[in-house]
């Protein structure tokens, strides 16, 4: 790993000068709560049953298997929008294709770990990524921090936004997913199961984005335009390119109506030019194997905002050594990335997924 060109997230810069102290999360399950925001209402009819389920200390994939067994369907008939952390209290949606089958009494699925919150019908399966975001309620214990600096960091995140790094969970234990992705693209890995292959491809794509975001933070341009930028509209994947930003675009960026973006690598010409193109070409030149591999698996060039707007970040010092945080993040953004801007945080029980 030491000879590899990539940097780990721990070595990448924070946006506001580093953490204000340290603390511990996940000492108790109820102190790490995540609620999925679906972003649309099930239609009320159709062959797919949508289940909103609250789970406690339970893995999403394990629960999906239990739902399939209970309903008497195969795994391919199950859908969900994203993985949720095993350790904590989380709610998320599943879809079950019951075409031609009778619907079971979902109360039989419940246990100390699982509670069914809502049942609805929809004509289409729930797909990965088909959610608006996630709502978090986190408690940090054993807080040791410069409270004035911590307050300043929180205000900066609320007023100026959060760097949209992919979290370390995306890269696997000891960044093994990147090493395997390299082996996959060099055709040294042999046959790879479909889900693992997807994880490795996502890790490679995420690392290229993180490298660009880190460089933009280092040059203090992650939250402001430079020539040739492509901007994402706030809360949307839609966007537009500009060769030379003017005062109007600068003001829109300052107000977080738009955000500079970084590459999600794939086929096609990057939609950037000028300074942005030169920066990204130089940074990603050492990653030729990963870039070529991502193109050959059929992914198309996309853009991801470098910044996340934090309009509903709330905090409270719940005791002399406790911090309570409440906030929402769009799908694909990471609570651990917010925390690293504030504190050096240890988890009493390590997360096993990326809460996307």
Can you describe this structure?
This protein has about 350 residues and is α+β, with helices and mostly antiparallel strands. The chain folds into 3 domains: about 10-20 and about 160-310, 2-Layer Sandwich (Pseudouridine synthase), CATH 3.30.2340; about 25-30 and about 135-150 and about 310-345, no CATH class; about 40-120, TruD, catalytic domain (Pseudouridine synthase). It has helices spanning about 60-70, 145-160, 175-185, 195-220, 245-255, 275-285, 290-295, 335-340, and strands spanning about 20-25, 30-35, 50-55, 80, 90-95, 115-120, 135-145, 160-165, 230-235, 240, 260-265, 300-305, 305-310, 315-320, 320-330, 345. Strands 1, 2, 3, 4, 5, 6, 7, 14, 15 and 16 form a 10-stranded mixed beta sheet that branches. The protein has a 4-stranded antiparallel beta sheet with strand order 10-9-11-12. A hairpin with a 5-residue loop joins strand 9 (about 230-235) and strand 10. The chain is globular and about 60 Å long. Residues about 350-355 have low confidence and may be disordered.
Please outline the helices and strands.
Elements: E1 21-25, E2 32-37, E3 48-56, H1 60-71, E4 78-80, E5 89-97, E6 114-122, E7 133-145, H2 147-160, E8 162-163, H3 176-185, H4 194-218, E9 230-233, E10 239-241, H5 247-254, E11 258-264, H6 274-284, H7 288-296, E12 302-305, E13 307-308, E14 314-319, E15 322-330, H8 335-342, E16 344-347
Parallel strand pairs: 1-16, 2-5
Antiparallel strand pairs: 1-7, 2-7, 3-5, 3-6, 4-5, 7-15, 8-13, 9-10, 9-11, 11-12, 14-15
Helix pairs in contact: 3-4, 3-7, 4-6
What are the key terms here?
single chain, 356 residues, alpha+beta, Pseudouridine synthase, 3 domains, 10-stranded mixed sheet, 4-stranded antiparallel sheet, disordered C terminus
């Amino acid at each position: 790993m030491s000879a590899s060109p990539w940097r780990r997230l721990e070595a990448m810069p924070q946006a506001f000068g580093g953490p204000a102290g340290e603390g511990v999360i996940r000492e108790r399950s109820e102190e790490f709560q995540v609620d999925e925001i679906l972003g649309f209402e099930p239609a009320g009819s159709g062959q797919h049953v949508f289940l909103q389920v609250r789970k406690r200390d339970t893995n999403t994939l394990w629960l999906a298997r239990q739902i399939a067994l209970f309903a008497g369907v195969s795994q391919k008939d199950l859908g969900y929008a994203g993985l949720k952390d095993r350790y904590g209290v989380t709610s998320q949606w599943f879809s079950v294709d019951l075409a031609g089958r009778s619907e079971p009494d979902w109360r039989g699925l419940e246990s100390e770990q699982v509670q069914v919150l809502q049942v609805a019908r929809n004509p289409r399966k729930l797909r990965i990524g088909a959610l608006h975001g996630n709502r978090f309620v986190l408690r940090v214990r054993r807080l040791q921090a410069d409270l004035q600096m911590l307050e300043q960091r929180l205000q900066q995140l609320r007023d100026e936004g959060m760097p949209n790094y992919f979290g370390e969970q995306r890269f696997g234990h000891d960044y093994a997913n990147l090493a395997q992705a390299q082996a996959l693209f060099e055709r040294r890995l042999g046959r790879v199961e479909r889900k693992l292959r997807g994880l490795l491809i996502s890790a490679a794509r995420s690392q290229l984005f993180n490298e660009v975001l880190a460089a933009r933070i280092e040059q203090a341009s992650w939250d402001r335009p430079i020539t040739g930028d492509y901007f994402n509209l706030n809360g949307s994947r839609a966007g537009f390119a500009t060769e030379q930003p003017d005062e109007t675009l600068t003001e829109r960026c300052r107000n977080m109506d738009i955000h500079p973006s970084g590459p999600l690598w794939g086929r096609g010409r990057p939609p950037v030019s000028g300074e942005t193109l030169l920066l990204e070409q130089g940074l990603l030149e050492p990653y030729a194997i990963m870039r070529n591999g991502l193109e050959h698996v059929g992914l198309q060039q996309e853009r991801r905002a470098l910044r996340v707007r934090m309009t509903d970040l709330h905090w409270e010092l719940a005791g002399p050594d406790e911090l309570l945080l409440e906030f929402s993040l769009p799908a694909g953004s990471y609570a651990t990335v917010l925390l690293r801007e504030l504190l050096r945080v240890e988890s009493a029980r390590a997360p096993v997924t990326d809460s996307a």
